[in-house]
Write a structure and sequence with these properties.
heterodimer, A: about 70 residues, mainly alpha, 3 helices, about 85% helix, B: about 900 residues, two-stranded antiparallel sheet, two-stranded antiparallel ribbon, 37 helices, disordered C terminus, GCP_N (chain B)
Chain lengths: ~70, ~900
């Protein structure tokens, strides 16, 4: 049982590694944590299109906030 | 890092925190927005095809020119597939794909609208709690599950279990201030049907709900860049995409070798590189399209090579210019296509698939340019090696086609090509100037010819250069017009500007007018040429007649050289008779000229124009030994200047020959007149000598025969030959429209005169006969002269004797002594002895003469000329010769209308 769980965990880890690698290749800008969240969300059935658009806008929003902060500060 | 079962909301919130790097409280707006987006955009708009996604990823990588990375990705993907941990591989991959950023491209700054959106606080009332209550419910399930449950169809994969684990079913109500992470698992414990219904209720409007709450560009462009990307990129396996083919084709259109399609010089065609992997249809299409490149090359090669050729001429250059124009249009089209391609490549996202370039689109758009290029290439082939008028003919020949497009194109090219020719033509017919350095025009000028032969030899037609749209008749007229103008300028020294001669319209100087002329070749062009022709020729004839008295000279020729002025000729002959009887070597020209002057002054010739009399002169021909003056004397008429064009050297030679003949005939007439005079005078005197009566009778008969003969000959020459021909000539000259007509008429006149006067080659035998007859007449004259002399001498001696006798009787002596009487008797006997000799001589002469005449008559009968045959009738009107000559009998009978069958 533990070995199965371990195996599972290992597999999961490997998968995550692979996915991270892919993400790095594709230059998505996602770090490990974000990636894992995303993966979990996708596994739960969220529409990836919507999710990606959300992420994009979040990024843009943060950019704009940063620039405005830079200007004001 | 286990995939623990956190709810989606929680995850979403933590994602927001992560991405923005802020705390939970600060990302409230973003979180709400995110929830809304995800709630409203539940269904993925594209198909869940993992392979497609992986393909797209690979293509994207390749597009970024990262071939090794693509290989790596393939490996990773295989591994992923092997592991089987992920259940929604597609989703993850799609997510990663959509988040891909090209490291080369700067991040697009579309900050504006979104920041404003996020900056706005979400209104509280819009998000009432019940709304939120129900919303998370709809968020609770993935699309797959909903569909399956909605349809009530068979079990989806892990339907039952997924209900609990997957959905965000436990999402609860969130207040505005912050998410409460306590999801209310409404679904948990509830029967499926209730949630089913609500799920259905939500399912329907969600799909149709417009993403208006969201900023527009995020949803829609998501599918299309994927599609266009797939078209543009080359596959990692090496298969060429259509877009790169399109790029290649655009290069090939210009004749430049593309990446895949290159010019194969041996086969003279464009071939696709065999190493390239290409689908058959694309291969076909590109082959079809590269035909354009081949055609373009052909045309371009021709224009380039011809532009280097310096001797090509104006017509050829305008042909090349026309081709260039067409090529320019073609290049313009190509540049439009290029720019289209450029735009497409730069804007990945905005273009829809309707306006992009595909090979098929190119095929359709290039249909008309291909047709045009094909026509031009065929034209180029046909016109290889031609120049000038030939080239224009070739282009014109191509215009005879039923296809209106082709015809229009060829007409356009033809108008440009024929413009230099028409320009040249205009200059030629209005100014008489031939400006043809490349020998393209159909009128050729021989620079070696001097002005005296200008009319005849200097200008000729270059038949090969006559364009096929100008007929031979028009070309001849054109030649004549220019020739007349040049003649006026150079020979007649007439410098009136051409504007006065013809009403010149200088409108035909641009290609458009040339095109119009071409369209109306039968009408306007012909009229133009005809008008110019009429005016110029009329002017020329006026000048010739007014200033140079052409017609007067013509008449003078008739009067003097053709013995028209009877009284003058007679008088001249009278005066010249003693001179010409001398041997030829003793004659001096100035003596004879003096006599001529006397004759002129004494007769009507003195009233002639001074110009004419100035030119009248005596010429002494070459002296052969034994010639008398009669053989070497000739009149002459000097011609120079413009009249020499009509009276050329050959014409003058003919005139002199005819003069010689006529002069001789006249001399015969003159001689016979003398003979007759002598006969009349001496007839009475010699009545007293009966022994001479027979001889004299013979003389008289012969003389009258001769007179008759000569009479008829003279009649024939004067009336049948000279007058008739002269009449014809005169009417033609009066009616003549240009100088060529006059020259031709004049030459015909001379030819007919020569032919009828037996001076041409065919009638040599006749002439010979005639000459012998004339010789006989002269012989007879001398014989008769000697006869008369001796007779008269005898007579005078007898008269003297008589006188002496009478005187002696008067003196009372014997009239005659015996010796005197004996002497007298002896003398008379001697005399009488000479009589038979004379008689026989005369008989011989008669026979000889008559045989000559008979032969002459036979020859006349068989001559091809009709008037000569009629002459023979006249000569033998009472069939006197026919009775003697069996040959004559037969031949005369034949020609006198008796039917051949009767003979």
């Amino acid at each position: 049982m533990a070995s199965a769980a371990n195996a599972n965990i290992n597999a999961a880890r490997e998968t995550m590694d692979v996915l991270l690698e892919i993400s790095r290749l594709l230059n998505t800008g996602l770090d490990m944590e974000s990636l894992s969240i995303c993966v979990r969300l996708c596994e739960q059935g969220i529409n990836p299109e919507a999710l990606s658009s959300v992420i994009k806008e979040l990024r843009k929003a943060s950019e704009s906030l940063k620039t405005s902060e830079n200007c004001t500060s | 890092m286990a995939l623990d079962q956190k709810s989606p909301n929680v995850l979403l919130q933590s994602l927001c925190c992560k991405v923005t790097g802020k705390s939970e409280a600060e990302v409230a707006h973003q979180f709400q927005y995110a929830v809304r987006v995800i709630g409203s955009n539940y269904a993925p708009t594209i198909e869940k095809d993992e392979i497609l996604v992986t393909d797209k990823i690979k293509k994207e990588l390749l597009r970024q020119r990262r071939v090794e990375d693509a290989a790596v990705f393939s490996e990773l993907h295989k591994k992923l597939q092997g592991q089987g941990v992920l259940k929604h591989r597609w989703s993850v991959l799609y997510l990663l794909l959509s988040l891909t950023e090209d490291p080369r491209k700067p991040p697009s700054s579309r900050v504006g609208p979104y920041s404003s959106l996020f900056a706005q606080p979400l209104p509280r009332d819009a998000h009432s709690t019940p709304f939120y209550c129900t919303r998370p419910q709809s968020l609770s399930l993935s699309y797959e599950d909903r569909l399956q449950s909605g349809l009530g169809s068979g079990p989806g994969p892990g339907l039952g279990s997924s209900l609990g684990t997957r959905g965000i079913s436990s999402l609860g109500v969130y207040s505005v201030n912050g998410p409460t992470p306590t999801p209310q698992s409404l679904l948990a414990g509830q029967p499926q049907s209730a949630s089913l219904a609500s799920r259905l209720a939500w399912a329907l409007p969600v799909n149709s709900a417009p993403s208006a709450a969201m900023a527009p560009p995020t949803a829609r462009p998501v599918p299309s860049p994927k599609l266009s990307r797939s078209r543009r990129d080359t596959d990692a396996t090496g298969e060429v995409s259509e877009a790169s083919l399109v790029r290649d084709i655009l290069y090939v259109f210009q004749g430049i070798d593309g990446r895949f399609i290159r010019m194969n010089a041996q086969d003279d065609c464009y071939k696709i590189d065999s190493k390239v992997v290409l689908s058959k249809s694309l291969r076909d299409l590109s082959s079809r399209l590269s035909e354009l490149g081949w055609l373009h090359n052909k045309v371009r090669k021709y224009t380039d090579s011809r532009s280097l050729d310096r001797a090509f001429g104006l017509v050829g250059q305008s042909f090349c210019a026309a081709l260039h124009q067409e090529l320019k249009e073609y290049y313009r089209l190509l540049s439009v296509l290029h720019s289209q391609l450029q735009v497409e490549e730069e804007q990945i996202t905005t273009l829809s698939s309707d306006s992009s370039l595909t090979l098929r689109r190119l095929l359709v758009w290039m249909y008309e340019p291909r047709f045009r290029l094909r026509t031009l290439a065929a034209l180029v082939d046909f016109c290889q090696g031609r120049k000038g008028g030939e080239l224009a003919s070739a282009v014109h020949a191509y215009g005879k086609t039923g296809d209106p497009q082709m015809r229009a194109l060829i007409q356009h090219v033809l108008s440009l090509v024929s413009h230099p020719i028409l320009h040249c033509l205009n200059r030629w017919i209005y100014d008489g100037e031939l400006d043809d350095t490349y020998h393209e025009f159909f009128v050729a000028s021989d620079p070696n010819v001097k002005t005296d032969r200008l009319w005849h030899d200097k200008y000729s037609l270059r038949k090969s250069m006559i364009p096929s749209f100008i007929s031979m008749d028009q070309a001849r007229k054109v030649l004549l017009i220019g020739k007349s103008i040049n003649f006026l300028h150079q020979v007649c020294q007439d410098r009136t500007p051409p504007g006065k001669i013809t009403a010149v319209s200088k409108t035909a100087e641009d290609p458009k007018a040339a095109a119009e002329l071409l369209c109306d070749l039968e009408g306007a062009f012909q009229e133009k040429i005809d008008a110019a022709y009429l005016h110029t020729s009329k002017y020329l004839l006026d000048v010739l007649n007014r200033n140079y008295l052409l017609l007067e000279h013509l008449q003078a020729m008739r009067r003097y050289l053709l013995l028209g002025q009877g009284d003058f000729i007679r008088h001249l002959m009278d005066l010249l008779k003693p001179e010409l009887a001398r041997p030829a070597t003793t004659l001096y020209q100035h003596n004879l000229t003096g006599i001529l002057e006397t004759a002129v002054r004494a007769t009507n010739a003195q009233f002639d124009h001074a110009e004419i009399l100035k030119r009248l002169d005596v010429r002494l021909l070459e002296v052969c030994p034994g010639d008398t003056g009669w053989d070497v004397f000739s009149l002459d008429y000097h011609v120079d200047g413009p009249i020499a064009t009509v009276f050329t050297r050959e014409c003058m030679g003919h005139y002199l020959r005819v003069f010689h003949f006529l002069w001789r005939a006249k001399r015969m007439e003159y001689t016979l007149t003398d003979i007759w005079k002598g006969q009349m005078c001496n007839a009475k005197l010699l009545k007293t000598m009966p022994e001479l009566s027979r001889v004299l009778h013979q003389c008289h008969i012969l003389a009258s025969e001769m007179v008759h003969f000569i009479h008829q000959m003279q009649y024939y020459i004067t009336f049948e030959v000279l007058e008739c021909s002269w009449d014809e000539l005169w009417t033609k000259v009066q009616r003549a429209q240009d100088l060529d007509h006059i020259i031709v008429a004049h030459e015909t006149f001379l030819d007919s005169v020569i032919c009828r006067c037996l001076l041409d080659n065919n009638s040599r035998s006749l002439l010979h006969q005639l000459r012998s007859i004339f010789d006989q007449i002269i012989e007879f004259q001398s014989v008769q002269d000697s006869l008369y002399r001796s007779a008269l001498e005898e007579l005078s001696l007898r008269l003297q004797e008589e006188e002496r006798r009478r005187k002696r009787e008067e003196e009372g002596e014997w009239g005659v002594t015996a010796e005197q009487e004996a002497e007298e008797k002896r003398r008379i006997q001697d005399f009488e002895k000479t009589v038979p000799k004379m008689s026989s001589q005369l008989l011989l002469l008669t026979h000889f003469y008559q045989s000559l005449v008979q032969q002459f008559l036979v020859l006349l009968m068989t001559s091809p000329d009709e008037s000569l045959r009629f002459l023979s009738f006249r000569l033998d009107f009472n069939e006197h010769y026919r009775a003697r000559e069996p040959r004559l009998r037969a031949s005369l009978g034949t020609s006198r209308g008796r039917r051949l069958s009767n003979i």
